[in-house]
Amino acid sequence: xxxxxxxxxxxxxxxxxxxxxxxxxxxxxxxxxxxxxxxxxxxxxxxxxxxxxxxxxxxxxxxxxxxxxxxxxxxxxxxxxxxxxxxxxxxxxxxxxxxxxxxxxxxxxxxxxxxxxxxxxxxxxxxxxxxxxxxxxxxxxxxxxxxxxxxxxxxxxxxxxxxxxxxxxxxxxxxxxxxxxxxxxxxxxxxxxxxxxxxxxxxxxxxxxxxxxxxxxxxxxxxxxxxxxxxxxxxxxxxxxxxxxxxxxxxxxxxxxxxxxxxxxxxxxxxxxxxxxxxxxxxxxxxxxxxxxxxxxxxxxxxxxxxxxxxxxxxxxxxxxxxxxxxxxxxxxxxxxxxxxxxxxxxxxxxxxxxxxxxxxxxxxxxxxxxxxxxxxxxxxxxxxxxxxxxxxxxxxxxxxxxxxxxxxxxxxxxxxxxxxxxxxxxxxxxxxxxxxxxxx
Amino acid sequence: xxxxxxxxxxxxxxxxxxxxxxxxxxxxxxxxxxxxxxxxxxxxxxxxxxxxxxxxxxxxxxxxxxxxxxxxxxxxxxxxxxxxxxxxxxxxxxxxxxxxxxxxxxxxxxxx
Lengths: 441, 112
Prior knowledge:
The complex is a heterodimer. Chain A is mostly helical.
């Protein structure tokens, strides 16, 4: 391998890439447990399909658009690496092979559109969703990743490299981006039938806990791996990720106990995700104490924000806005307050003598990514709605998407008359039969 | 003959079953049920959204007995199912015209 190659860094980044990959199925369980029984599978597979679609597009042109040499003004990469041609086995990004860097970044591109799916749970046509994922990563994620993550000595992305906006592991590119897109999508698709009237309780909180646990675990790859080296910055990012998440769990639970009188399981899981989201952009520039502050603020603020949908009347089914957008904005802005200048970045925040300069830059990043993502996501959603249709029929929505879109159901609750030995060409009518236990026949 | 139906709290089922066995009841049918009485249901909170759950889980027990045993049996069930807290349930009996044992075709008290 060429000079500068580090086997240690490379091994670390590969492991991190695999950890980040696990976040997408983790997210699928997190979301899947929160929907009703009738659309569990649809929720799971909306995340899972992102693994398939984005991986293929990434090799075809995604990597090139996001990380190819800049095509002008830091807005998008050129087409030098279409099909990942022209990338040699010995080519390096920093101290690791370009192939390792590409694999790591691919996992970010996969989970970002999957995050959006929570906003439109229970009412989305699967084919329309797949098309949206393909179009969205192409016109929104790949360019924004270039803006934020592509560094080329001042000739890279316009936000990160040219204007000093700090986004260590994706607060703007991943979470604000997905959160805003989720808002645009649920505005276009409209509310679920029965929103604010019918109870839409999560069908399996154990699945939600499993999912949030997998997310937390994988997030170490997300954040520590973003150092792209097994070094002290990665170590600090790791610690910051853990402590901010822990603080956010406590913050969310405290808010809930005061406001609603109970420490809920869903609150603990949601607080963890809120903390993970908020520390993502900041984990490479703040201290562990700053991380605790960011975590608590994110936990409380996101817990308060999830009720916005009831007040403002938009139906963001699983709170993508309340958790990812609000958490992402908090984390991105608080870099301008808590950045010490001594971790992975030299920029200092308000509390460390840096004045308002970095806070202003962070606000610019938030507004730029938010505005771009909202407009493009809204246009894509409207275009799909007007062509192939984005939303399932009322009948399908009421009876459940799993049967209609996937010809499957997540669970078999029928105890009487449900013989599996008898194949049927058409689905048998389902009757609600109470379970009976004959104690003595 | 009488059909005695009891809707009780699920966690009292084992005690009721034991009491019925001790009394000499040979058979019963148990069904998972849900419902509410005067106490209504309970409230659950999901991300700040509060849901009132009206229907709470119950167990429904049905027992066929001869007329002379009915009153005493009702007392046995009530005693075994009682916790003293709200939501303990109800027990009632109705007259039954016919009962047939499917295996043998026996009718009336012989079928019990």
